[in-house]
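User: quick one, fold this
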Amino acid sequence: MNPQEFTTSTAGQAIRTPKGYWAFLPAPLPPKINWLPNLVSLVGEAERALAELSWVGQSFPEPHVMVRAFIRQEAVMSSRIEGTRASLDDVYQYEADQLSFLEPNSDVREVHNYVTALDYGITRLDSLPVSLRLIRELHGHLMEGVRGDMWTPGEFRQSQNWIGAAGSTLESAAYVPPPVEEMTAALGQLERFIHDPSDLPHVVRAGLIHYQFEAIHPFLDGNGRVGRLLISLLLCQWKLLPQPLLYLSGYFEKNRSEYYNLLLAVSQRGRWEEWLSFFLTGIRDQSRVTARCVQGLQSLRAQYHQLHAGKRDGLRLNKLVDYLIGSPIVTIKQVKDGLGLTDYKIAQRYVTKLQDEGILREVTGKTRNRLFRADEILRVIESA
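Assistant:
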């Protein structure tokens, strides 16, 4: 790492380690922020967009099934930033048990682990707030059975890591996080900032915490995904969202180069305002997109429910429609289990009825182990 590229003291400082290489030590949060009019406006816009998304999400008749779709979309996009190429279709097929995942480094397994970690984190918030302990637990779920799982899942690193192009060293890396001793102290400071009362808007605090976590880089692998998980968990812990509806990773993935460059620019030149403007713009824009997506699902749900009005099996068919909003690619066995049915043939009959209505489409062409896809539902989810 070249210390001459780190010219500010507002975000931290480059330090020379006892072993002779340079590393960056982030300063404790919060920094001094230059509250330019544009930044103040973005705070208000981001807060209003989040509030609108929260209201739209809570007004959805079956919010718990709808949230399943958004968690999976967030997992796909967050993992894609790290180089995986699994699609939303792949994730649902994995959950339907249609694909082989014998390879421990499967991209789809990584995405599935992200879903598991986020589900776990949201449930865990009932008994444990966002903390270093919860962060370690999230990492353990995230890294189980995938690339990097040999690098102490669920434990903070005990050796130096660095960020740079393939083949880079500590000397040539673009960024070297703090050594272990300094890392431990910085993590303690970050945890205090998360827990201590603050006059800063929560949307700003989330942006500061995300940067700080990435700057500390406390794991040997998986830091980016854990850092993005924290955003979702913090928004829920602070009651800005009732459930993890916002998948900000879609915005980060779309603007990947700018995302990484702005994080580095904070460390190198103290560009807090540029980073926060980018972060708040993402919350505002992605909240609006997601709200439209929720409304699209609600409209589609009402349309499908109307098809079954007055029919003998109408209530069960509509229950299946609601199940498909959370799992738009399914097997008959999944339908049977998801609807709590005891008879496979009844589940098969319901699936056939939705096929006849054009809601479901069989995609394998097989007579056994068939897979059914709700194309219109999936199209709405992927539009966000």
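User: anything notable?
Assistant: The CA atoms of residues 93 and 99 lie 6 Å apart.
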